[in-house]
Amino acid sequence: xxxxxxxxxxxxxxxxxxxxxxxxxxxxxxxxxxxxxxxxxxxxxxxxxxxxxxxxxxxxxxx
Length: 63
Prior knowledge:
- The radius of gyration is 14 Å and the shape is flat.
- It has one domain.
- The chain has helices spanning 10-18, 43-61, and strands at 31-32, 40-41.
- It has a two-stranded antiparallel sheet.
- By secondary structure, it is mainly α.
- It comes from Cetobacterium somerae ATCC BAA-474.
């Protein structure tokens, strides 16, 4: 999995203002040409995120 920093995560910014000591991450699928008529979602990256989140939730439920 590739980690990259991008300009996004408006919600993370709002939450971090209220809880400045909280570590926050934002993950999601690849979306291109956002907020335009040509916006599209990369289905394969959506599947990767979905599978990752399923594993993460299952692991958290073990604790």
